[in-house]
C-alpha cells in the first residue's frame, strides 16, 4: 500500500481514538467530522496513484505469468516433438531389426536349401560313380574270365 495512504489511515484511526464518548450515545464515539472528512478526501486523492501502481504491478505480474506460460508451453511442445522423434526413431529401428531378422531367416533357409541340394548332388555323383565302377568291375571281371577261358583252351 502507498505510504501516503498508510499515513492518512493512521491519522484517521487516531482521530477516532481520541474522540469523546458522550453519555447516552450507546457506546458510540463523537469525532471531529471535519477532520475525518478531510482525511478521507486526502485518502481518495492518494488512491488513484496507489491504484495505478497496483495496476502496473498486476500487469507486470500478468506479463511475467504469461511469459512463463509461453515458455512452459514451448518446453512442453519441444518435449513432445522430441518424444515423437524418439518414438519414430525407435519404430524405424524396430522395423529395421524386424527386416534384418527376416532377411537373415531367408538367408539361412537359402543356405539350408543350397546345402541340401549340394548333398543330394554329391549323393547322386557317388551313386553314378558306384554304377560306373560296378560296370567297370563287371567289364574287368568279364575280360578276366574271357582271358582265363582263352588260356585254358590253349
Task: Give an overview of the whole structure.
With 154 residues, the protein is mainly alpha-helical. Helices cover 89% and strands 0% of the residues. It has helices at 3-18, 33-153. Helix 1 packs across helix 2. 1% of the residues are buried.
- Which percent bin holds the helix content? over 70%
Give the SSE order as H and E letters.
HH
Number of strands: 0
Structural class: mainly alpha
Beta percentage is under 5%
- Termini Cα gap: 152 Å
Report the biggest beta sheet as strand number plus sense, adding barrel if it closes. Answer: none
Shape: rod-shaped
How much is the average pLDDT?
88
**Over all CA atoms, what is the radius of gyration?**
57 Å
Number of helices: 2
Which features characterize this protein?
single chain; 154 residues; mainly alpha; 2 helices; 0% strand; rod-shaped
Short summary:
The chain is 89% helix and 0% strand. The protein has helices at residues 3-18, 33-153.
